[in-house]
Amino acid sequence: MIPISWYLLFSAALFSIGLYGVLARKNAIAILMGIELMLNAVNVNLIAFWRYLSPEKIDGQAFAVIVFATAAAEVAVGLAIFISIYRRRHTVAADEIDLLKW
Amino acid sequence: MPIFELIFILVAALTLGAAFLVVTSKNLIHSALWLVVALFGVAIVFALLNAGFLAVVQVVIYIGAIAILMIFTIMLTRFITQSTGPRFNTNWIWALIISFLMFGGLIWIFNSWPGINTQLPPLPADFDPIRQLGIALVSPNAYVLPFELASVLLVAALIGAIIVAWERT
């Protein structure tokens, strides 16, 4: 059977790829996609630990459900902010949104 | 039972490849479509871990709502996103280094954890995660407070998104 290390390796790789997307991409929407990948890696870890260490309890799944709700809220607000920024400044490139930079 | 290993390796390779294309695609629409593939692969991983409900929720919420919302936003901001030159900022090499350091650090932490070779335990006799999850999310001595907070957070995000994206004339 599959040992837990495979799932941990998979989620670590997914998290690192998402982190690279967050740090390196210019477009703000692409940054948000990287955040989604990172949240998915976290969920894979939560579910893997739940299944391997305490399948008789349900806490891991409950945590994952809360992560789902938070991710949905984060994306809704983030995309609304991007649309608003695009309407005012005609860009969604993260390095051109520098109103607060001195 | 090598069939599960085979499925896992195939799905993991597909998901990681799709995730890599998400962060490197030139066209943002392609990024979003590869994001759908990656999210679907994660849903299959959930199904392999006997979390069928979360696999369905993953497809419905992530693919059905979040990815579609992103595609809408890309289309609403499209002309600029295609003409902003390079898709990576000037610090991309540092981002690569930090990502590899993160990966190496995570692997190191996993290696130093004594339970790294835990094998799959058999399912308990009364295994009914959907029923357990439903009870846990509304029972006062489990997760009712985080659950209600998540509901309030979603309402706040809904109203906030409408207010922020409102077009004032």
Can you tell me about this structure?
Chain A has three helices and no strands. With 102 residues, chain A is mainly α. The radius of gyration of chain A is 17 Å and the shape is elongated. The mean pLDDT of chain B is 86. Classes of the chains: A mainly alpha (102), B mainly alpha (169). At the A-B interface, helix 1, helix 2 and helix 3 of A face helix 1, helix 2, helix 3, helix 5 and helix 6 of B.
CATH architecture call of the largest domain in chain B: Up-down Bundle
End-to-end separation of chain B:
64 Å
List low-pLDDT spans of chain B.
none
* CATH architecture field of chain A: Orthogonal Bundle
Q: What would you call the shape of chain B?
A: globular
- Parts with pLDDT < 50 across at least 5 consecutive residues of chain A: none
β-strand amount of chain B: under 5%
The sequence of SSEs of chain B as H and E is HHHHHHH
CATH C-level category of chain A: Mainly Alpha
Query: How many β-strand stretches of chain B?
Result: 0
From the helix content, strand content and strand pairing of chain A, which structural class follows? mainly alpha
Rg value of chain B: 20 Å
Number of domains of chain B: 2
What's the count of strands of chain A?
A: 0
Largest interface: A-B, 75 and 91 residues
Alpha plus pi helix count of chain B: 7
Describe the structure concisely for a colleague:
With 102 residues, chain A is an all-alpha fold. Helices cover 76% and strands 0% of the residues of chain A.
Key terms for this structure?
heterodimer, A: 102 residues, mainly alpha, Helix Hairpins, B: 169 residues, Four Helix Bundle (Hemerythrin (Met), subunit A), 2 domains
Topology readout:
The complex is a heterodimer of chains A (102) and B (169).
Chain A lengths: L3 H21 L3 H26 L5 H31 L13
Chain B lengths: L1 H23 L3 H21 L3 H25 L1 H4 L10 H21 L16 H10 L5 H22 L4
Helix pairs in contact in B: 1-2, 2-3
